[in-house]
Amino acid sequence: MSAEGLSGAARQVSSSLRAGFFGRFDPSKLVFAISALILLGLVGLPLFWLAVSALTDKTGAPSLANFERLFTDPTLLAPLRISLTVATCVSCISTLVAAPIAWIVARSDMPARQLIRALITASFVTPPFLGAIAWEVLAAPNSGLINVWYRALHDLPPFVHFIDIYSIEGLIFVDSCYALPFVFVLIANALDRIPADMEDAAAILGAPFWRVVATITLPLALPAILAGALIAFLRSLTLFGTPAILALPAGFHTITTKIWSLFQYPPNPGLAAAASLPLLVATVVLLKAQSWILGRRGYVVLGGRGAQTRRIELGALRWAAFALCLFVLCFPVFLPYFALLKAALTKTLAEPLLADNLTLQHIRFVFFEFSPTRLALRNTLLFAFVSATLGTSLALVVSYLANRKGVFGHSVLGFLATAPIAVPGIVLGVGMFIAYTRGPVVLYGTMWVMIIAYVTIEMPAAYQQLKSAFTGVAHELEEAGRVLGAGRLRTLKDITAPLLRTGVITAWCFIFIGVMRELSAAIMLFTAETKVLPVVIYDLNESGDLGAISVLGLMLLLVTLAITFVANRLPGLGVSAAGTK
Amino acid sequence: MRQHRAALSAIVAAISAFFACGASALPQATPVTPDLVEAARKEGKISFYTSVDVEVAEKVAAAFKAKYPGIDVLVERAGSERVFQRVEQERLANIRNADVVNSSDAAHYIIWKREGLLAPYVPEDVAAYYRNDADPEGYYATWRATLSPIGYNTKYIKAGEAPKSFADLLSPKWKGMMVKGHPGYSGTILTATFEISRDLGWDYLQKLAQQKVMQVQSSTEPPKKLALGERPIMADGNEYNLFTLKESGQPVDVIYPAEGTPFIASPSAVMAKAPHPNAARLFQSFLFTPQTQQLLIDAGGLRSLHPKTQEHAGRTPLKDIKLMRDDPAAVVDKVDEIKANYAKYFGT
Predict the structure, then answer these.
(1) Which B residues in the span 36-75 are in contact with A, Cβ-Cβ below 8 Å?
(2) Which residue of B has its CA nearest to A157?
(3) Would you identify the CATH topology of the domain B2-146+264-315?
(4) pTM (two decimals)
(5) pLDDT digits (tens, 9 = 90+) for B296-317
(6) Which of 3.65.10.10, 1.10.3720.10, 1.10.290.10, 3.10.450.50 is the CATH number of A354-581?
(7) Three-class SS of B196-225
(8) How close does chain A come to B230, measured CA to CA in Å?
């Protein structure tokens, strides 16, 4: 009997078994309907209002004026072109750097592999805007520490610089640093799962090492590499914080900062909505292209489960590989955190870290004088907890229903849960602002509008995480449960859920970290009572208070690390692999 | 001749009548009574939206809390244009959060008053000393003032070689050496840009844009970039951060350009729908007391219009500086044009 036939039979058996107790009502249908409605509301409502305001003029009459302006106004076309250029470069650079590092960490016998993974995690939890501020401290053309060192080393006069972070190249560089962990995790996880037998077979047949990599490893890892490049591209295209910090001083706009500036007085939400359309279209087209490329080829790794992964022996090159990893980590981790630490503890940033230059003034200011600190910290943690918990629950239900193909319309759910990836945070913020400042339910100004935004933005990541976790759970176990008379929900609770622990914790941490990093939607939606740390940091950056920013940024990082650490080690939840993701 | 004189005296009479009328129309001042203090204490809190430098704002907040224990001050600091954006967003969503608002774009108050967002309230000090610097109907008054001068880093530029005027900034010598704020974020810079474009013409700003100027947002940031040594000259930015940085030993100094220095008045007002109406009024009164005004001068480097304050030693007194006149009513009509021109020339 085929698997389909078995599951069909199981369904019949289970429904006829329960028919006597519950009639023909299947509670999973209700859950399905509710989650579909929630998802549709989360994504659909803001997009609907965006479309409405893009297609109407100020009086509310239908009009294409916004689009006309979008495609003719050079002050809108230039940012669009810059954003596409930056995103393409970021995608290439981060993939080219991440792929070899991922291979070294996942497949070689390099020393301290776990340490490297953990450090890459540190760069994952770093909010991109914080990284950008740290890189300002490091590489501003005149006051940047690297340029100060460079001049001192070569005995050069002031205003000669080595790097200028306020440039398109600088933006590409910083963006790449923080796209790196996303690409790395995707590729490293894929490489973890590729069994060594095929590589061994090729090697036994006499293929040299490079040929094994080119004909076996690379093709097997290709889906992950492509996915990584795509994620890097989309993230860069839709990022707000980094360009807001680096592009303005350089005198150019990216499409996200341009959209944001359209909300300055007098605000032009219609044009902002129209300007976000190219971002949406680009994302949808790319996601389609990806599934088209991957869908044409079979990537089933036979015997994947249980097969041993053999590590490639690098010999003397082990240490060279280790040095390479450390070198790469300088850019997203070591240098930025050194810069933040220095800015947090010194009176004059450009002076050396000596006793008479040390101060606790910034720490005192942040914790005892600066009034928003406490409220923002409390809000950030509260929102992160609530969003992570609600978001994981929703993603769990949706990925279960989408994965178990028995439910009608399962692919629609999967689409809805993935759709937010195509909506940049700033666009979603704009849409939500328009949607939730009008009736019937005015949510703007409450914590719920923030939580809805966070859940929506992080849904694709959580959904992907749980979907792949579900794929790992054999259908047969669930079907056995249902044959024995348990309903869908009971099977979910007793059989599937315990098998999903790791995935659930990882998804929870993903959302939690996501909230701590999120700026672009939050900046559109916060009010004084719902202020969060990223917004406070952004405000302080606007007035150039580097010391206070550094203290807050380091605090944000420590809190995030501590909570993800605890979440991964809670008794009863089991130890997961999330720490490395 | 006689005719001319008659015309002149008629004009003078009209002008003085106008001012007298404006002054006499100022509504009755509200004294700070124990009842007001008690009612404010019951509310326990005041939310202060301001664009003043965050450290200055926190110092004012601390002084208020010391004088009136039990009333917390929540400082919401952002650039004036972002303060305005948030007030606007909150108005659209019918959110009552701001109690007292302070923006360095005086034009905002004309718009807010028109939209009915402000409450008329005249503190005693305003009635007594701010007749010419308050709204005739008592909706707002100039809480603080500053200038947008040129600044330079004394470590990199000798006093004799520093630019003396806005025209000097166009010298090829200073290409790539300047930093300035952005009128889309900062009310101080918007006001300064208005005054400069009016007095020197857009031509000047168009040429300045060719000088590879580093663009930052708030007017509080150029002085900080100057002190860091990121750029040795600031083309605009506020005077008060230059004073506080200079007096704390940083290598920065002020230049009052020959053409005149943009003057920026920064009013304060109580919101009509303030969630803490009594605390808001108490706070607004507190803002205009000679003590608070002196604090703005001494700790904040700001200019005060309160005659009972002392100029700070070592700073050029306001009366000795050639000023460019502010004109909020004209800014209201010009704001679109200013921002569009700016985006055209400076790219952001």
Answers:
(1) 47, 49, 53-55, 58, 61-62, 72-75
(2) B156
(3) D-Maltodextrin-Binding Protein; domain 2 (3.40.190)
(4) 0.85
(5) 999 999 999 999 999 999 999 9
(6) 1.10.3720.10
(7) HHHHHCHHHHHHHHCCCCEECCCCCHHHHH
(8) 5
